Structure formats: C-alpha cells, structure tokens
Input
Amino acid sequence: MASVTIQHVTKAFGTAVVLDDFNATFENGEFVTLLGPSGCGKTTMLRIIAGFEKPTAGSVLFDERAVSSGKVFVQPEKRDIGMVFQSYAVWPHMTVYDNVAYPLTIKKVDKATVRKKVERVLQAVHLMQYAQRIPSQLSGGQQQRVALARALVAEPALLLLDEPLSNLDAKLRESMRFEIKEIQREYGITVVYVTHDQTEAMAMSDRIVIINRGVIQQVGTPREIYTNPANPFVADFVGKIEFLEGVAGDGRIELDGCGQTLPYAGPLSGPVIVGIRPEQVQYAAEGEGDLHGTVRTHFYLGDVDDCRVDLGGGKEVRVIADPYASTGLAAGKTLHLKVRHFHVFPRAEGDADFRKILT
Output
C-alpha cells in the first residue's frame, strides 16, 4: 500500500492552466475518486501521479518519497503502480492467462510464482474458467476484468483507474462497481479512480475529490459531499437539485419572482441561492405546506412519482415522491408542498446569472 501526497501541483499546456495549485493527500488503503466534468483536469492529475505527465510546478510524494518535483522525476515503471484505462488494452493474440501474466513475465519471475499469482488474481476477478480463452471470446465486462487482473497481478502499492467502466453497458457498470470495490478491499490496495459519473463515485469511494476547471471544489465522504455541498457547483454535480434565487432575512427566505417564502434560521442574510433536492419535497395538505404551485409535468415511474411544479413567475421545483401518496396526480393540478430540507448559499448582490458557475 502507498499514501499519495500532492503538494501545490499546477499543470499548464502553453497558456492553458489545466490544474491550479492542487493539494490533496490519499491515505494508505483508501479508495479516492477524482470526480468532475469532462475537461476539468482529473485525468491529467491521474497521469501526473502515474508519471506520464510532469507537473509544471509542485510535487507528488508516495509515502513521503518524492516521485515528481522540481529536482526529482521517477519514471512510471519505477513507481510501483498498476493502471487500468478506459479502453481494455488487452493483447488480442494472447490468452487471458498470458495477458495477466505479462507484467510478471517481463520481470523474469519464475514460472511457479507466476502461476500462483495469476491464479489468485483470476479467482479474484472471477475469470479462472476463462484462463485459456482469447479476448475476442470474452464480453466487454470480462475484458475489462482481464485488464484489472493484469494491473493487480504484480501487487502494486497503488492502483490508478481512468474511467474503466465507461465503455460498458449500464448493467455491467453496476456489477463491476461492486467487483472493483470488493477486490480493493481484499488486496488492501490504495486506489485513485477517475470518473465523471457521480453514481460510480458515490457507490465506490471512501472519499471524493470534486474538481472543476482544475480547482478542487470539495473533498469529503460521499455522504458529506451530498448532504453538505460546499457550493452550488458541487450541489448541482452530485445528485438532482433545483435552484431558486431569494433574499434571506427575519427568519424567512423570500423567493424571487413567485411571491413565496421558506422558513430559514441559518446565518446568511441578503441575496442567497436556495438549492432544493427533489426527494426532500413532500406533498402536503392545504395550509400545511411551505410552497404551493401547479403540476406542470408528471411521470409515474412505478417506484416513484417524478413531477415538476410551477411556483409562478417562471420558478419551479422538482418532486420525486411516493407514488402511493399521489393517486390522481396530473398536469394542471394544484399542489401544496412541504420542504423538509434545503441548501442555502450566498449570492453576490445583483448577480442574476449565478448559473454560469454551474457550467
């Protein structure tokens, strides 16, 4: 196992700054996900950790040993890492066994040790019965597991995964999430995982690093990130949420444009942004709700009702609720809503276009 410490890392390609003063520590045996939209710098950070890119400034340490800095640069093959890419990158002419054995073979490990280690890792990824097949005889998920086994067989101190599930269909992605997490627990290995899929990050991670435009927005457990987002970008990127502008004061937030208010006992005053997650809104009896409006769209999805409610003035909220509590719900019907919880963020005076920070 290895810890990873990233100190003031900046990476620029010409005048384009891809990472800006990146600081983070990943502990031994931890599963950390770098999460953010395409182009935010997460893959560049992974490549810097791997040694495929040199930082413009700053340093990277493995267990307090510098592997990238102004004076030191350790080549990728000497960093004791395993890496799995988005593409399977398996040798098409080799059997599953030979693909997995390849990292040990080129190190001239004796055959008995190779067999022992390959069989162990093939058992871990549930591919032992396919050891003599070639990749063209395997499904996409099985080929990705071959790539994972090949990365694990040399027992690296650090495993780096760059969107390894994005080429798989939805059902395979879901099953592979749990398999990768179980393998990580079995081997006790430190994992740094890159994805733009927030469901993957929430399901697999011990901690998540949210990145936007090369800057860390928040670091925390999945629960911390979801329940206490640092800013509207994080709240919007992780989970479903609707934003409303308003003004806080005297124990209420007056929502702009719709003439409605929400009770608020928090510390902020003046212009604010209110974030409401759809599962935090419940149907209420007349006179008992916080908000009221007209159903604009309604979808019955079996396990939930998903509808959008027009609050007036072009403002709306989304409600995902128990379908058994909404018999007869239809577009055009008036609804009263109880908001169990909402997020409040400061808003700059006169900033009517705060949504630009979400893009």
In short: The helical segments are 42-50, 96-105, 111-124, 140-152, 170-187, 198-204, 222-227, 232-237. The chain has a mean pLDDT of 91. The chain has eight helices and 20 strands.
